[in-house]
Amino acid sequence: MMKKEQRINYPSSHKIYVKGKIHDIEVGMRQVSLTATVNIVNGKNVSEENPPVTIYDTSGPYSDKDITIDITKGLPRLRQKWIEERRDTECLQDFSSSFGKIRLADKSAADIRFPIVHKPRRAKNGQPVSQMYYARQGIITPEMEYVAIRENLRNEEQGLKTMLTPEFVRSELAAGRAIIPANINHPEAEPMIIGTNFLVKINTNIGNSSLMSGIDEEVEKAIWSCKWGGDTLMDLSTGEHIHETREWIIRNTPVPVGTVPLYQTLEKLNGNIEDLNWEIYRDTLIEQCEQGVDYFTIHAGLLRAHLPLLKYRTTGIVSRGGSIIANWMTKHRKENLFYTHFEDICEILKQYDVAVSLGDGLRPGCIDDANDAGQFAELSVLGDLTRIAWKHHVQVLIEGPGHVPMHKIAVNMEEQLKTCHGAPFYTLGPLTTDIAPGYDHITSAIGAAQIAWYGTAMICYVTPKEHLSLPDKEDVRAGVVAYKIAAHAADIAKGHPGAQARDKALSKARFDFRWKDQFNLALDPEKALEYYKAGRLDDDSGHCTMCGPHFCAMKLTKEMNNCIK
Amino acid sequence: MMKKEQRINYPSSHKIYVKGKIHDIEVGMRQVSLTATVNIVNGKNVSEENPPVTIYDTSGPYSDKDITIDITKGLPRLRQKWIEERRDTECLQDFSSSFGKIRLADKSAADIRFPIVHKPRRAKNGQPVSQMYYARQGIITPEMEYVAIRENLRNEEQGLKTMLTPEFVRSELAAGRAIIPANINHPEAEPMIIGTNFLVKINTNIGNSSLMSGIDEEVEKAIWSCKWGGDTLMDLSTGEHIHETREWIIRNTPVPVGTVPLYQTLEKLNGNIEDLNWEIYRDTLIEQCEQGVDYFTIHAGLLRAHLPLLKYRTTGIVSRGGSIIANWMTKHRKENLFYTHFEDICEILKQYDVAVSLGDGLRPGCIDDANDAGQFAELSVLGDLTRIAWKHHVQVLIEGPGHVPMHKIAVNMEEQLKTCHGAPFYTLGPLTTDIAPGYDHITSAIGAAQIAWYGTAMICYVTPKEHLSLPDKEDVRAGVVAYKIAAHAADIAKGHPGAQARDKALSKARFDFRWKDQFNLALDPEKALEYYKAGRLDDDSGHCTMCGPHFCAMKLTKEMNNCIK
């Protein structure tokens, strides 16, 4: 049974809302309250307040006690009004895709269907309704102001420099250097921005394969991912009930949701790649656009001409989408249909503001294949496709590797920037060695931190089960936290205003032996507390078991400081 | 009760020995046997052999089935004969340190004492007996040839380029750019080399604090650390029975063992820092030299003049040794006694070939303190001390941070190289953010991989329990594997000959669906297998649960390749 009430709790935290100045909006953030520092001055305890710390919050309404949560009803539709007020979209009477209609009419799916049917919304007269389009018109939308406030983390109030004005957001979107994935049919999602001049974002992948996992579990994983800090969520399901599972996820997810529409298309064809054709793919795109998917991974850059380059590879194609389309091209002796139909695809996407994430079907799957001719040949095509998408005002992400040794990472970023005209880069890791299955969240966090520092806008998490099995909840947590570490390390290295404030507050708490404050500021307060308790005896003195009571360096430093004073 | 028989088993692996050409030596390595690749050609199975992969092996005799292991007797004394044959040392009739004599005479320690007493060995007439000294005489010792063979991993046989000749080893040691920590009283240790032009090494820390852990557990942790790939081992015990615990560890550890002698000195003084003096520290150094400790961390570079720089810090001093000596200086208003007695220290160390690891008492303990004036002021003193140690032919390591954001890591390496005349750098991480207690093996593996790529010779592991508690066995495993990943990623990025061979063999196994070969080549075969099994149903088909049977990219690539052929 579905657990209706799902909550996200963070210790000593409460939700605050920062109001917009241009629009009537409220941006949720997490505020962590801290205890005071107590110093001994002339033998007396002198207390000094520590200001609360504001943290970028991906948990949406789940962490707001004042909002009623009911999974069977879905989240509040935050953006509904903004979208309506633009008056450039219309609510359709019925779903436009054949498949959407069939599923809705299918009585056998009644038990697993999301209980509320939201009629789909689409642009009037086929016009573009993307954030990029508005940005190019010089319009600052509520979404743009929202992300500007969200990224600032109240730095201004703390006297920190900020360049992240709504106008800056607009200009970055207009230039294609950033995107706000925001399907008009996913008004539950809180706007967030992906671009090299903003906080580094992380994507998490969930989804059942035909072998494992059910709807309940996937919804729980989605919320779980948001709890730990996932900025976007890809539903990579390949098993049964993809349509219904996705509906449940989208209605209950406060972050943008991405998919690889090809996967579902093939489910419809019983896995028969040869039968893949434009009509069924097109119907799937529309089906998902009308459900509210915010971005699609489309492997449109892998061309027939690239296939001979595979013979030099150790692990061939490791992208599922890439391998499928390569097979299709080989069997049909035709050019990639996503490439030949790319303008058609853009025509659809722009009417819902679905972003395209140009998949790298030839991403290297091992160190030996990194930065090879195939990879860069495809990247060059992705650059051409970027121009086409932008012509239609479709927002673009470029997907990147994969497995890359450290000394070859920088070149990836440089080539991507040059070839793809500054479109934001979205990489899977990269993994910096192949020899650690079971620990690929670490092999890849090393590479992800570096490439994010060099400018990658979003990094796709890898869990400890990568290459081995589907992740369970604990794997998702391990993957998300590893990637939050990589992203935050990159934010600091990039000098993002205010990124370091949390580190400083946590370290001050550590030095003060304010253990609870330290844990409450941590990426994973529960784990930190659990480990701390594992080593505690029942005393409450100012040390941990690492150094014992006599040789705690920080304790000794404090004593010495007192002595000097 | 002590478990006498300890074994290290790796799947599908056996021990091989490569003979020396100059000396009568045999260097143990691990060889992983692989199964054949089976391709379908014209409808028939065609089998193609995969050569075995040779792996650098830190497990010593524990993984050799032909050697009898008995923890109560200690490991075979591999280097005994080499040391004797140099004829520059003598076996003493009794221990030279007062404490060593007292402990040996103490009947109450009989139950916990290591059963065999090896009389200590010392240089004749106070002359240097260090590997650096021999190297400077132009002598290629068995130790030097041993590490040359060990580092090569039989690359020559595989047609790979190698510069790692015994003569190259000698020249690096003579220049101080590398060290072989090899106390003449630890003949059980297999020679290994630490230097920027060699494979990156990792150190693990074990040791009880006064609060936790016993002798059995520490010996088990030591062997456990060697199993997963720890290259050296620091015993940081601060609790009871330090002397006896260390004896058990050294007699049973096939890798160099390091300590911070100050910790034990303070135990002798019941933790009273004020009572610290040269005589008791000197006695401790001699005690440990004669037990066989291979390198000492000594915080000799932190001077009184540096203390005022602390007031600019968020977390003051986080090095235990640093905080102790800072306290001592403050209380006595005297200069650091390790600094004032540094020549005396070198006089002792050179007679046993104990290397000095110059501790960084002012390493930054948070991102905010990274690369500050205090840190670099101390580094400059470490450079001066390096020259003094080298004058005595004492081998030198330089310890480094700590907590450093990514954009400040490279400067650490550059400054260290410039200031410390090329002596090998040995860093703790660095951690690239402060906000992830519970995951600091990851925050630091990110920094460690980078600094090792830039030239750091050895990285000191950090476990998930860092800042929170003492690590247990599973934490040691997690820390070692994270650091093996960082070290290996750096070896690849540095272009170390042959480093990538293991990645390529593993990836080829992955592409062939030779699952067992893939796991057997992994850093942690057991974990990989466990995760794989977690996702398996009972079939044995060529896919995992990640993609399910239909959309496995590598399976599809193979089909396509067959189709093209």
Average pLDDT of chain A, rounded to a whole number, is 93
Based on DSSP secondary structure assignment, what is the total number of beta strands of chain A? 17
Largest sheet of chain A: 8 strands, parallel, barrel
Low-confidence region ranges of chain A: none
So how many helices of chain A? 20
> Using only CA atoms, what is the Rg of chain A?
24 Å
- Content-based structural category of chain A: alpha/beta
Instruction: Tell me the span between the first and last alpha carbons of chain A.
Output: 63 Å
What does this structure look like?
- In chain A, 39% of the residues lie in helices and 12% in strands.
- In chain A, helix 15 links the parallel strand 16 (425-428) and strand 17.
- Chain A has 20 helices and 17 strands.
- Chain A has helices spanning 80-85, 98-105, 131-136, 142-152, 166-175, 215-228, 242-251, 261-268, 278-291, 320-332, 337-340, 342-349, 373-391, 409-419, 440-454, 473-494, 501-511, 515-520, 525-534, 553-564, and strands at 13-19, 26-32, 37-41, 44-48, 53-55, 89-91, 121-123, 178-179, 194-195, 201-206, 232-235, 257-259, 295-298, 355-358, 396-400, 425-428, 458-460.
- In chain A, helix 6 runs parallel beside helix 16 and helix 8 crosses helix 9.
- In chain A, the strands form 5 sheets. An 8-stranded parallel beta barrel of chain A has the order 10-11-12-13-14-15-16-17, surrounded by 7 helices.
- Chain A is of the alpha/beta class and 565 residues long.
- Chains A and B meet through helix 10, helix 15, helix 16, helix 17 and helix 19 of A and helix 10, helix 15, helix 16, helix 17 and helix 19 of B.
